[in-house]
Amino acid sequence: MTLSHHDGRWPTSGLSYGADYNPEQWSPDVWRDDVRLMQEAGVNMVSLGIFSWGLVEIADGEFSWGWMDEIVDLLEEGGIAIDLATPTAAPPGWLLFEHPEFRPVDHDMQPHWPGARLGWCPSNLVFRSYATRIARAVAERYGDREHVVMWHVGNEFGGGNGRCYCDTSAAAFRRWLREKYGTLDALNEAWASAFWGHTYRDFEHILPPRGHDSKNPSLVLDFDRFSSDELLQHYLAERAVLKEVTPDLPVTTNFMVGAEPDVVDYARWAPHMDVVANDHYTRSPDATPQQDVAFSGDRMRSMTTDRRPWLLMEHSTSGVNWQPRNRAKDPGEMIRNSLSHIAHGADGVMFFQWRASRGGAEQFHSGMVPHAGEDTRVFREVCELGRHLRALAPVQGSRAPQGRVGILFDDEAGWAMTKGVKPNNLLPYGTLVRDWHRAFWRLNVGIDVLPPWNSFAGYEVLVVPALFLVDDDTARRVTEFAEAGGTVVVGVVSGIVDENNQVRLGGYPGAFRDLLGVWSEEVVPLQAGDRFELDNGWGGIEWTEHVRVRDAEVTARYSGGPLDGLPAITSRAVGQGGRAIYVSAAIDPASIGEFVGDLLSSDENPLPDGVELVVRDTDDERFSFVINHSLRDVRVPIAGVELLTGLAVDDILELPAGEVRVIRSSI
Amino acid sequence: MTLSHHDGRWPTSGLSYGADYNPEQWSPDVWRDDVRLMQEAGVNMVSLGIFSWGLVEIADGEFSWGWMDEIVDLLEEGGIAIDLATPTAAPPGWLLFEHPEFRPVDHDMQPHWPGARLGWCPSNLVFRSYATRIARAVAERYGDREHVVMWHVGNEFGGGNGRCYCDTSAAAFRRWLREKYGTLDALNEAWASAFWGHTYRDFEHILPPRGHDSKNPSLVLDFDRFSSDELLQHYLAERAVLKEVTPDLPVTTNFMVGAEPDVVDYARWAPHMDVVANDHYTRSPDATPQQDVAFSGDRMRSMTTDRRPWLLMEHSTSGVNWQPRNRAKDPGEMIRNSLSHIAHGADGVMFFQWRASRGGAEQFHSGMVPHAGEDTRVFREVCELGRHLRALAPVQGSRAPQGRVGILFDDEAGWAMTKGVKPNNLLPYGTLVRDWHRAFWRLNVGIDVLPPWNSFAGYEVLVVPALFLVDDDTARRVTEFAEAGGTVVVGVVSGIVDENNQVRLGGYPGAFRDLLGVWSEEVVPLQAGDRFELDNGWGGIEWTEHVRVRDAEVTARYSGGPLDGLPAITSRAVGQGGRAIYVSAAIDPASIGEFVGDLLSSDENPLPDGVELVVRDTDDERFSFVINHSLRDVRVPIAGVELLTGLAVDDILELPAGEVRVIRSSI
Amino acid sequence: MTLSHHDGRWPTSGLSYGADYNPEQWSPDVWRDDVRLMQEAGVNMVSLGIFSWGLVEIADGEFSWGWMDEIVDLLEEGGIAIDLATPTAAPPGWLLFEHPEFRPVDHDMQPHWPGARLGWCPSNLVFRSYATRIARAVAERYGDREHVVMWHVGNEFGGGNGRCYCDTSAAAFRRWLREKYGTLDALNEAWASAFWGHTYRDFEHILPPRGHDSKNPSLVLDFDRFSSDELLQHYLAERAVLKEVTPDLPVTTNFMVGAEPDVVDYARWAPHMDVVANDHYTRSPDATPQQDVAFSGDRMRSMTTDRRPWLLMEHSTSGVNWQPRNRAKDPGEMIRNSLSHIAHGADGVMFFQWRASRGGAEQFHSGMVPHAGEDTRVFREVCELGRHLRALAPVQGSRAPQGRVGILFDDEAGWAMTKGVKPNNLLPYGTLVRDWHRAFWRLNVGIDVLPPWNSFAGYEVLVVPALFLVDDDTARRVTEFAEAGGTVVVGVVSGIVDENNQVRLGGYPGAFRDLLGVWSEEVVPLQAGDRFELDNGWGGIEWTEHVRVRDAEVTARYSGGPLDGLPAITSRAVGQGGRAIYVSAAIDPASIGEFVGDLLSSDENPLPDGVELVVRDTDDERFSFVINHSLRDVRVPIAGVELLTGLAVDDILELPAGEVRVIRSSI
Fold first, then answer.
1. Entry pTM
2. Chain B partners of C372 at a C-beta cutoff of 8 Å?
């Protein structure tokens, strides 16, 4: 195996394949078996040492490297690359015992007691000095080992310490606010703090949003931003140490990207990652988990301006343990999930974790090697996936072409929408966004789920779903996109507040009112069990609006109810062949499907239901991933060389139920 | 406009119309627009300064009145009267920063962190001194301004600090108990504290009901009483300052009266109000919000012995923000609500708030001027309501005649019933009471919802629903009412405990057993999904009783179930043509409707379904409010001059769907 | 009445009958009435003084015995035996005031505030010294009174202080761990603490599982064990004092045994009880509360190796107050419950409490004397039960013969299964166990619900339902049972972890894999609303497994779903005619019923539906309890003398709906 160091090349040659490797749970005889099985499975990289701090720094400043030296040697002998962790997600017991003030504190001022992970306040600089010391120690000991190919900083930042309300955090919050606003007048203005007489006379009077009572929404949003920034500062502090010791090694940490607002603002973190990496777990009750896989990939890929490949750092071979009822994956599902991540731009798939634990808090989380061992469906599929990934080595470095459709996604908008009190307090950001994504995804249209500050150039359609908070610049750029000939679709709960979380006056959706040529007088939420209907047969629940048309065509009207006969969906011709469509009601997925079908005229023959087609391109080649999520065999018109089987496909691909094929062709 | 000072006259000439006015949220150019729009809408009074403390007392003892001076001038110029607030609901940030001990503490000893409202312990006398100082400052600066017509003390007392469990409150509670009981022996006896061995040996050992465990119900009830009293003491302290500075101005504060037990005991507060004022918000899932409006009015009016007009201090023009899904009001609904409040005795309708906020915690609460501005359904209805209220000026000062029916309502009974553990712990006090009220309300029978210490003279029927706690005097007076010829209807869960929250032994409903001539051996709650039936076809859920008859006629029996064949409803002839009826089962609203229909023989033609008729009288005139809550046009036989249209009605009023008319006639 | 002292004889001559007696709630005139009514009801023993601490130790070390002296005299005069309590469940207010550090602290470090019961930390040795002092004082004052026949130590240990997380408890936990493990290495190994890097370097770093985050499951289980042990140590400390003062008096405390994992490990406590006693309350929504009665009796009886009679220390005459909706017992139900307890091995039935309280936290809990007094269904049934129990005096001392079926039940297994994160986190231990018990119970098969360390000799069938945690010794003994010719049925979620709560590797159910000849690759939980089917028509919800057969017959297979065609139920012939059956899916009660029906071939004619038959034997006599839980009269073939009526039954017992008969016959 040839290892790549950080000259922009991918950490492994070929697609990466592996898992979190926590050998400290097992005895040395198991370690040797691990390497043998990794080789059998085709594993070429593992994330090592994530929870090793307490096992290498056994007392303050006292290190014991023996077991890890041995593991690194074994992995090198086995030809397995190492994505080596700074072990700062799990501080040692002695450190937390000596420094109870490190504990993060929740909004009710209850500390997170030791016993889980990430039990430290992100703003605590004493903790940060311990963390950078261990990061330096690890880097200095192993940074020059040939098989150490990447740094994995901490783990799942914010999972446990995403928001800390302690006094140290409060002081840091005030420093952050001073930097952001400069003056109290500016802060009071941005926060509309005169309401309820909260005008601040001294930065020292400001507290995090502790307790249960209603809070100023602008303060809450700034605390979310601050919290994300503080964790990023911690990451950057560790990264700086690593770069100082090993300037050529790529540095990353694992995001937890899905459709819901994230614990930190990943899109704003991404520029600080040499490789953007994600942990993705499907949800047991999700009716279309395969779409959630696509959604996260469409987000990950769009976080970098060059759309470069990303790394799936964790997913699961089968069931997890932290949901109420943890579904085991169906036969073939893990392979479909994995190759779908590759299709959507990943250049590697890794799992949590290599070997399912005997004990500890995650003992019932599936692994690459199950409790039952090698002679299992799961391990056989793991080996099969390994073979597939080796066959897909040519895919490495290829990139997804830009999609026809861009969907805007913003953590700040999600935070603002889902916190504080609103006309309808039960609207889920992720569902609203995923409903739009699913409709396009079903049509096998290329989709990018992008942050609002990315360029919109090149899209055919730009969807703005539930983008509650929009700044002026975004609003202007969306308008310019339409004026330049694009189609903008604005969904419910969009454009309502500005970047300070203050309502844009004059009618919703304030940021897009002029573009759309309509405005809403009032939002009209529905009660549980109620449903609205439109005059074109569509319908939905939860949200309608009293729309007024200034300059737009009404394409559907409310039928029945308090808004009977009023406009529900409008369309306005804009600029050079552009169009701006307002969907003022939370129409249901079936209605969205019809809407999207009408919107995208296509000459292509549609694929069979349940078949997903995703492409990645190099300069002269195309890799077409054809994924059969359905329970029946299908025939797909396509031509090229199939990489998993090595067979040529002349014009029709015979694709069995549940299987995946990857067709290589010239472009 | 002629302003009235406190010689008993109403604060405005004509009905009051306006809102909370919080101009501190807006820039001065908006203020001028506000006055213009108020005039357009017919606003004649606003509540000013409720959240102004931090904006006028900018540091301890340092005042800055400029902006408020300007507002007062502008309002005076615009002819708008001012209901001026002492701003004590929202202490300044600097004060809460300097005095963290002011924070109210909940039953788990968690403080209410700053950031909302009413963040102060009602028993804290240091806070009280700050509060009375700012009240005095406001009174001295503005009390002699012509347009200042009333004092609005604080805001929604108890909304945030209704129960404080801190050590200061604990000490005050012990003082309150010493005053109430004098001796520990008396307290131990009243509390039955020997149970679980809790007998107190020292007042100092008594704590508020902190924590989650089961508590002595007598202690809990006394803590509720104490908490209401402490907040009242605070109100009275502010009131005393205001009366000292401006002896002639009326003083009030805004209640939050509905059907559920209140945060404080409003009926016991009412005598301390020069004008009794209420905040009323309908609930989104309520199937008959119009009845909730009637219910609150029937309560408000009955809180004063002279049935004098009250003031609706707050309601909403459309949706609020603090419910899970906040229904927007239907077209016309706000006007119907408003005129219904007037019909039920209000001499003014005000809103929270004048202009919907851009920012802050209530940014999505509707206002008189919506986010979308003037050209909106809401603002047009606001103006229409203003015209209606001007047309209704003659109504001012008229009073509702005493109802045929009195329904007893008591916060102490509600508190006692809904706290602690009971045979059925899921019975809602408000629903039980409103079910009875609704049945009479549908028949357009005059109803007073009165505290048990009011006189019962003059009623035809006295309903005692869910009056769990009854003292001996009330029991005696109810009995005397029946003996004097009245009809008493006792509903479930009534008369069970005495004023100490101790069970009246010898069979339920102990307080009314002799009057009713029956007693219950045992209560027999139903499980979820179960239903009982009576032999007359009625039925219901949740509650039945094993009734024994001593001296009464059985008018309905249980049919099926463990009580099959036993008495369910009984009737006893009492004294001079009186009657005492026991309804031992929680019969459903339809059954209550039939019961009430049978009870009230009426010669009058009933009104069409969904039409409410309410009257207010002067010495020689009657104002008949006819409210069409239905979706169809109706014809109502009535004659007089219609005030909103100015047209004469000869014998039949043509009343369109959703509309209201007010007929003036001689009596 | 002849009283028995502790020479192994039962505390009363004849079956015990009575209640908790809390006369401190009532005035002395009531006391005299109490004795009269007790005599009328046939009461022969009461539990006295449970909540008397604050009433006899009125200040630190200052005692006031007057009222209790009087009560003891009155009871002696009335011939009522006394089960005298050490009053340590309810410390006096002055003690808790002086020692706030006694308060137990919950997992969020919130103290249990005074006002309920058991408000003390079990590890607090200063409290223990107060508790043993009052125990000694009570023993010295009343231990030589003739009618004091038993000691009732405290009350419902753990009900309020079952888990204390305070610093005192934390220190005690560390001491307990040092004793258990000796070295940190042993602890780290047993806890798999290397996972998440939690390896301990000092016992002082170990904390109870405070807070909300995920915890190490081995630590959590040890904390459960420690908590049970600490309460047991408290019990033993009081017991030692009592035995020192009155060596001949039996000592007990009341368990709270049902089907759910208990607050403490009762089966491990039982050897320290002279008389094993239980409190049992049926649950209002339970569809078969009569089976819950049988289940608890089958557990109680099997806690002692000699199957000796136990005492029902508390149940209720009718409704309780601590459930959402508290069902009143149907006519006859209390008598059926009571005699069913006797049938299942109790030699006495007692109630909480004698007289329903007027005040205090349990004022709506039913009593032997209801609020409504003597002329009530409840009191008449109380008297009827007293007559029945006198008629059943010959039953005293007889014992249930060993059942055909043994069902394993273990609190440690239940704790391990229901805490921490699992494949399916919503599986209820009690339901899984009761579903198996119910199926055998319906067939009127004798069942013992026994701890895993009891002997299995003599059973025909051994059921292992949801025995998540199994140690090696139990696994070996279960195997030996099958090898010796017994039938073992292993249900879902059994044998998965070892005594350290670590997974047994190599396939589930690890502890029984070899015995069963099968292993599961993976567990496959179902989602809410989903259902699995087997090819024999059975089905169920929540749990299936991917089973692999090594050496067993497949008796049912999955039909449909991801496991279609795979083995679901297997059977393996073992040793000398034995059999080991694995039921890998959570089949529903109907399916279990068919399974059990197939399993137990029986020549006997089945009894009518809803009729329970339970026997107790002496050396030469059999007492057959025939309980008609149904709503119709039935005929049961049986012969002997019926004890309640005194009538001879020749061959057919005519048993009216809802009634109980007890047939005495020779064997």
1. 0.97
2. 505-508, 519-522
